[in-house]
Structures are given as structure tokens and as C-alpha cells.
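Q: What structure does this chain adopt?
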Amino acid sequence: MMSQPSIDLSLLSEPEKLRVEELLKEKKRREKYEKLYSFPSYPWQRELANATATCSQLLAMCANQVGKTTAGAYIISCHLTGKYPEWWTGHRFNKPISAWACGVSNETTRDILQFNMLGLPGYADEQGSMFIPRDMIISTVRKPQVPNAVQTAYIRHFDEDGKEDGVSRLDFKAYEQGEEKFMGRPMDLIWLDEQPSPSIYTQCITRTVATGGIVMMTFTPEDGMTPTIHQFMHNPQPGQFLITATWEDAPHLNEERKKQLLSQYPPNEAKMRSQGIPVYGKGLVFPVPDEELIIEPFKIPDHWARVAGIDFGYDHPTAVVWLAWDRETDMVVVYYTYRERLQTPMQSGPKIRETTPWVPVVWPHDGNKRNPGTEGAITTADLFRKQGLKMTHDHFRNPKAPGEVGKGNIHREPGLTAILQHMEMGKFKVFSTCLDWFEEKQMYYRDDKGQVTELNEDLMCATRYAFQSRALYAVTRPEHDAYSKYKGKSLPLYSKGVV
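A:
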């Protein structure tokens, strides 16, 4: 592209020279203080902005250095000012709004979010030099104890005819301030740059319920496959939108720059940094790829033992996992699962019983809880016994450790460790038909303190009960009575993966 020829001011008359100097000065002023009107957005950034027409929770899960923060700052600035570009088909606020821009710490919020919206912190001449034009910033309030940080900014808002119709309010917040700082008044728009904790995210959702507002997240998935990411990727709800952007979506990164950047990252982070793909296994309880566990259904040999584990539920699902175990090789296979919410034992019991009713079912200690609404306040375990399930005589316990006195404990970690070791040895497999098992595995993770999340762990708990109890309770197929007709044949549920 050819550059424009420079103007030789010596050839101009004095009035012409003054006029040109004024035009050049105005051009520089606009370039510095009116960036909102000349943002050269990429296609994926436009798609993110326009998705607000139908979605209220948005996630831009992107590679590093592709412009995700820039996109977030531009989008929120358009909403704060009411100044939308011609290509905009997303939601438009027809009034001044209340918005939050949120980052990890007070310092990063100042240096990244505040900078991208208001200009370089601490320099009066730089205020308004980024996406919110200088003449639209009415005033700002300093954040206490954080040098050069803005807590609140008041922004002029304009209607669709270009007339000023009020004042938008922008507050800068940081995750380090704690969940309580994200409670309070209803909000129209919340931008979360970098991934928030689940509790902060849900607080932000709550803040937008009354207004029908928007929550937008922009981040690179450095925390791995968290429940929030999993939901957007694999189980999106109405009103949710996910977009990804890789280095291929960022024209400002040439091949030489991409190669140089990639050389700086460890191999296990390459896809996350360059493609925005979560680091596999980071945070997961079972950081083993699905393809190493999945196996196509086969006829389980009669000499393999069977055992099932159940996790009781009502509001959350009642879940059952059936295992087949080859005693000779110690190979374990998950061959069938059941998971269903809002089912009483009388409703779920017969469905569970249909699947190899001779298989023992291991249950957790809360099965001893008595149900006041039943005759004699019968226990939950006994309610399932009455439905014909072969419930074990005692609740689940881990195998006793060497030297341990008394009965085994019911702790979670011994079972998780044992299952993971089995997976890593290649001796734990799951039928490909057990899709809900793989779905839950991807949502089963540890928080930043290493604690296992207790959400979406129904099938995982049932798996642990059965796996840890296989030596004590697993039995082979009966060779008599009603089950003898299945000798050497598939059971009726083979099409579902039960054999």
C-alpha cells in the first residue's frame, strides 16, 4: 500500500498553511481520542458482539494474543456510549446502562481493562485515548489504595439519533476482592476478562436476572476443563453462546511471530496457547484422555465377575454404574450406567433391576438414612431392596489398608487414587455406549485448593463404590434358575451395552 505524499507547507499561503495544520492536528486528535469509531474488528469479534441479539451469557474462549480483551473492551464501550458501528446487529441498549468490567486483581484490572477502555493510567493527557472517547468521559472516581486505578467512570450515553440521553456508569472490579463484592444492585452488562471462580460467575448471572442483562467472558482456558467451560462446550443452555479464536483468526500475527511464540511454551500448553483449547487434565480428577479408556461393547465372558455401585439422589440424579471384572488380569470394564433425576426408589428401582438383577449393588452410608414418610421409617437401602435390587448387607467401605484396625473407611481419595492408577495401567475401560459416564468424567475436577468438587459426581461416586468393592462383592453369572437361558448369549439389553 502506497503512503500518501507529504504536503510541502512552504508552497502554501499563510491561511492555507494554518488550515492544513488545523486539519492535521484534528486528525491526530481523532486518532488518539476517538478510537471507538475506527476499530478494525475481526470477523470473530463481530460474531461475538452480534451474538448478544439472542444470547445473554457469552464466552470467547481464545488463544493468547488474538484480541480477546480488545474485543471485550470495544463491545462494552459501544454499550456504554450507545455508539454502535454500522455492522452491529447485536443487542442495543436504548438507555444509559450500569456495567462492570472485572479482572483477576486490582492491578491487572487497572493495567489491562482500565487501559483498554480509558487510556494509560496515571496520565491526564492519555485519558480517553482508548475505546471510550475523551469527550464522553464525564468524570472518574479513584480506587482507594490502588495507585492510578479508577473505581468508577461516568460516561455520556447517546440514543440512536445521536442525542445525549443520560449517563452510563462503569465500575471496575477484581476477583481478589471476593464474592461479596459481586453482590448488590442489578446490572445491565458485566464483562469478565479472565476466568472467574464458579461462585463469582453465578453471582454475576444473578445480577443480570432482573434487567435481562448480559454477562460476557473473555479468556484463555488456563484452568483446564472446568464445569463452566464444559457446559458451554458440551451442554450449552438456551441463551448461552461460545466462540473460539485461534492464531489463524488473528491477522496481526504473522507466521514468524507464531513460530516464535510457540517455541516459548511447553508442549502440553501448545494447543491452549495457540488454539484456545483447555489444557487436557488440568484440574481433572481423572486426567486420562477418553480415547485411552473407551472400548466398543463386547460380550462379557461368563467367568468375569459383576458388581454395581449406586449413588442415591432425587434433586440430583440417582446414579448406578455396572462393572465387569476379570479376576485373572484385574481388568475392569464399565459396561452400563443409569442416571435419572426426580425419581423415587419405587420409580427408579424397577428400571435398575432390569439390568442383570443378580448383580450385587454397593451403596453409600447415607443409605442408612430413614425415610419418615414410609411405613416404619424404612431406610433408603431397604426401599431399593423392596424393589428387588440385590443390595449389599452393609454400606460401602474401602478395603482395609495394611495394619488398619476395624472396618475400612469411607474416604473418597483412596478410591480415586486406585481408579486413576488402574486407568494409567490400561486396566480400566468404559463401553462407548456409556456417554453420560464420559460426560460426567469431564466435569469431575478439583478446585484451586485440590479439593474435589461435589457437583456432577453421581456416576463417579457410583463407580468408586463398585470398583473398591469388587473383591468383596463381585459375583459371576448364575448358571441356574431364570438366568440359565442367557448362558453363552447376550442379555436383552445388549443394544445398550449390557452383556
